[in-house]
Design brief:
Layout lengths: L1 H10 L3 H15 L12 E3 L2 E3 L3 E3 L10 H5 L5 E7 L12 E4 L4 E4 L8 H9 L6 E6 L10 H12 L5 E5 L14 H15 L12 E5 L5 H13 L4 E4 L11 H4 L4 E4 L3 H15 L5 E4 L5 H10 L3 E4 L1 H6 L2 H10 L1
Parallel strand pairs: 3-4, 3-13, 4-7, 7-8, 8-9, 9-10, 10-12, 12-13
Antiparallel strand pairs: 1-2, 5-6, 6-11
Helix pairs in contact: 5-6, 7-9, 9-10, 10-12
């Protein structure tokens, strides 16, 4: 496995620098013809996916390497989180590896080039798989104006995305997770659905709109969100974002603030997906993400009720071969 040969050199670098080098290499790889490995055609949310394995948001925040990532065989790629205006995110260092746990902690805070630049890059993509865009609010925008940011992002990105994800679950933008409360979430989603209803040239069907939720929700909070998802014409839910929990990890994990991803997140994500499937019934689309680092973990997520899966941290620890391994496992 060539990746395991070069991983020590990558892990010797500061994590964000290593990540940027990987993105640069993938951008160069994008000059090749992107491919999508297929085990068939999966229909979900009115879209046709060549396979069930996608890349989670956060890996390519600015849609800088979509074509190169497509060459790894993903059935779909989600970029972002994108905000209306460019922003630098939190001060560095803000990304930390926990190799013993095969985990990451990040407090990046949505660093991105802004919706207009991301939209321009997506217009130029060659990758023909499904591309979703994950959207959020700028850190400087007060919570009572959050709806304006989400609607602005949606308006700019709707013509270059195959689906849009509403991110209200990152722990790294102050107050953002409070938007998961029903009294905040319902008006936000209603405003986006109203914006979606505005006719757009070239679009023959409504653009799928999804919600991404936290793994740290209580059972009553999860029930409230499930009830709202069933009441509104939303197209799917992504479970889950990163966690604030450090349960079972040592002092090294506790010294860094931010969201935890990777293997320790898997059990929390599985629990959330199971509960969502119980509450939403068999037909509502669920994308499962969190700690998927092997074909076994991918199968567990499918068994919990996920229609599609996404990987991110597993890719960093296991390398690009993880994509094809998971595709063979879940189709």
């Amino acid at each position: 496995m060539w990746y395991y040969a070069i991983r020590p050199a990558l892990f010797a670098l500061e994590p964000e620098r290593a990540h940027q080098l990987a993105l640069n290499a993938l951008r160069l790889a994008g000059h090749r013809r992107p491919r999508v490995r297929s085990t068939g055609t999966i229909e979900c949310m009115g879209l046709r996916f060549r396979n069930r394995v996608g890349l989670a948001a956060g890996f390519d925040k600015n849609a800088a390497a979509v074509d190169g990532l497509g060459s790894l065989g993903f059935g779909f790629i989600e970029v972002g989180t994108v905000t209306p205006r460019p922003q630098p995110g939190q001060p560095r260092p803000r990304l930390f590896r926990l190799p013993a746990a095969e985990a990451l902690i990040n407090r990046l805070g949505f660093p991105n080039d802004g919706a207009e630049k991301v939209a321009a890059r997506l217009r130029q993509r060659k990758y023909r798989g499904i591309v979703g865009v994950n959207i959020g609010k700028n850190a400087s925008t007060p919570l009572h104006h959050a709806i304006d940011d989400y609607v602005t992002c949606f308006r700019i990105l709707r013509r270059v995305a195959d689906y849009i994800v509403v991110n209200v679950s990152s722990p790294n933008t102050p107050g953002l997770r409070s938007l998961q409360a029903r009294e905040q979430l319902e008006p936000l989603l209603t405003a986006l659905l109203q914006e979606r209803s505005v006719p757009t040239p070239g679009q023959t069907r409504p653009l799928p709109l999804l919600l991404k939720i936290s793994p740290d929700l209580s059972d009553p909070e999860l029930q409230d969100i499930s009830t709202l998802l069933k009441a509104l014409p939303l197209d799917g839910v992504i479970a889950t974002n990163t966690t604030l929990s450090r349960e079972g990890l040592g002092a090294a994990a506790s010294e860094h603030t931010g969201g935890l991803s990777g293997r320790p997140l898997h059990a929390l994500s599985l629990r959330t997906v199971r509960k969502l499937r119980e509450q939403l019934g068999p037909g509502f689309p669920i994308i499962g993400v969190g700690g998927i680092d092997s074909p076994k973990a991918a199968l567990e997520m499918r068994a919990a009720g996920a229609d599609l899966i996404q990987i991110y941290t597993g890719l960093i620890y296991r390398g690009p071969a993880l994509v094809s391994q998971c595709i063979r496992a879940v189709g």
